[in-house]
TrEMBL record:
Enzymatic class: lyase
Catalytic activity: a (3S)-3-hydroxyacyl-CoA = a (2E)-enoyl-CoA + H2O; a 4-saturated-(3S)-3-hydroxyacyl-CoA = a (3E)-enoyl-CoA + H2O
GO MF annotations in UniProt: enoyl-CoA hydratase activity
Entry keyword set: Fatty acid metabolism, Lipid metabolism, Lyase
Cross-referenced PROSITE patterns: ENOYL_COA_HYDRATASE
Function statement: Could possibly oxidize fatty acids using specific components.
EC number: 4.2.1.17
The protein, known as: Probable enoyl-CoA hydratase echA8
GO biological process: fatty acid beta-oxidation
InterPro entries: ClpP/crotonase-like_dom_sf, Enoyl-CoA_hyd/isom_CS, Enoyl-CoA_hydra/iso, Enoyl-CoA_hydra_C
Lineage, uppermost ranks: Bacteria, Bacillati, Actinomycetota, Actinomycetes, Micrococcales
Family, as annotated: Belongs to the enoyl-CoA hydratase/isomerase family.
Length: 258
């Protein structure tokens, strides 16, 4: 079993909660943190007792980026040979729904990690930014692609080229975050949303996530066909029978595959 030194891992009912825990470095995402986070959430993905995951940081920082001190002295061949950041691809392949609960700084890799989650709930003190340009680099964990898809070219260019931070309100207005809540409630609100998701059929939630993600990978006609085929396939599941029977019988559904 992996020993977790940089994250705290808990389970609340059917919800997994992972808290980044490197306060001395504002939760900078070094390789150990990436490996531990990916291992913890991969285990939750496979655990039938977990239906959704929340990832959070501290009240001051969700994460202040990739670990600059760990990268500073690396050469090109080191970065290439290690395929630096490749581990994050495993995070993006998770099938379980993942919510980012962001308080404080979500910068560089921190903003990119939040964007790798399925949606972001932000505290009103949240600050998002891609300040890599100030370090003589550019985003390296998918920021130039995911931020552009989330907020459009104008704002992505503005943030990535100037390195300026945006607050929670601007982030919500731009479509980067799904809701803004008082900072002190951000984890609680994310846990509540995760509980709602975890009360549904887990395979159906996973398929719904896959269908939304297809919007980013395919054209409209292909994406709509993908969605319709999944929709048809669900009529082979007990959970569809139960969900629709419960509606007709005016009761709450009891899903089998949770
Ligand atoms: N990597 C390593 N250490 C970091 C860090 C990071 N990304 N961010 C903060 N820290 C460390 C600081 O070095 C400091 O450590 P020491 O006490 O040992 O000096 C500690 O965390 C506290 O930070 P500050 O004293 O700087 O705190 P502050 O409140 O004055 O400022 C901040 C907060 C504005 C977030 C500032 O820390 C900051 O600018 N951090 C870097 C942000 C950044 O550039 N992120 C992008 C990283 S590169 C990247 O992420 C690449 C990619 O695309 C994946």
């Amino acid at each position: 079993m992996t020993e977790y030194t940089n994250i705290l891992v808990e389970q609340r009912g059917r919800v997994g909660l992972v808290t980044l825990n490197r306060p001395e470095a504002l939760n900078a995402l070094d390789k150990a943190t990436m490996d531990q986070l990916v291992a913890a959430v991969t285990a939750m993905d496979a655990d039938p007792g977990v239906g959704a995951v929340v990832i959070t940081g501290s009240s001051k920082a969700f994460a202040a980026g990739a670990d600059i001190k760990e990268m500073a002295s690396q050469g090109y061949m080191d970065m290439y040979a290690a395929d630096w950041f490749r581990g994050w691809e495993d995070f993006t392949r998770l099938r379980i729904p993942v919510i980012a609960a962001v308080s404080g700084f979500a910068l560089g890799g921190g903003c990119e990690l939040a964007m790798m989650c399925d949606f972001i709930i932000a505290g009103d003190n949240a600050k998002f930014g891609q300040p890599e340009i100030n370090l003589g680099v550019l985003p390296g964990m998918g920021g130039s692609q995911r931020l552009t898809r989330a907020v459009g070219k104008a704002k992505a260019m503005d943030m990535i080229l100037t390195g300026r931070f945006i607050g929670a309100e601007e982030a919500e207005r731009s479509g980067l975050v799904s809701r803004v809540v008082p900072a002190e409630n951000v984890v609680e609100e994310a846990l509540k949303a995760a509980e709602v998701i975890a009360s549904k059929s887990k395979p159906v939630a996973m398929l719904a996530k896959e269908a939304v993600n297809a919007a980013f990978e395919t054209g409209l006609a292909q994406g709509v066909l993908f969605e319709r085929r999944i929709f048809h396939s669900l009529f082979a599941s007990e959970d569809q029978k139960e969900g629709m029977a419960a509606f007709t019988e005016k009761r709450q559904p009891e899903f089998t595959h949770r």
